Amino acid sequence: MQNENLFNKINCTMVRIQISLTDKEAKALKQYGAVLGYTLPKTIRFIIGKTAERILIDTNIPDILTFTLPYTLEKRGIKALKEYEKGETIKVEPSKIDKFFDSI
Which pTM was predicted? Predict the structure, then answer.
């Protein structure tokens, strides 16, 4: 439910597109995506998403990529950053994340 409210606040909409590629274009994109372990459709979404992100950053449209945190969450985030800067945090390997959270 909370994610649904956030989704509505940032006014996201999905647009379906259809494109045609030459064999060479499709082959090049497949090879590029294979390096990342992506399928052709995922590779195309990745490229479009990164390009759109760059356009939004470069055009400096205010508030398009940000949202306001609740005060308590912002305080916790600032506290976590300060702990990190003081060296009070530990690195947890991604493969051991479940074990870490089970231990706390």
Answer: 0.47
